[in-house]
Model the fold of this input.
Amino acid sequence: MDINSEILTRLKQLADTDYARFTAKLVPTVTLDRFIGVRTPALRHLARDYAANYMAGAVTGVIHGYVRQGCATPVDELRAVIEHLLGGGIFR
Done:
């Protein structure tokens, strides 16, 4: 399953049909079937999950890169990646 399908599946699991109907009334030019009805707190939680997975993947990638290159320690590079991700607003 690709990432888009996975996210859509998770969004549909979080769907609230009453909220979808309410939201659809606010945008009368769009049909109800285009709305999933996921509330903002649930969206934020889902985004945090994916951001955490991204961070774990980035850290793992840095470590694997250092192992392949035969470097002794990835600490400085790992610190730079973490600071970049945190400074870029991904985890705020």
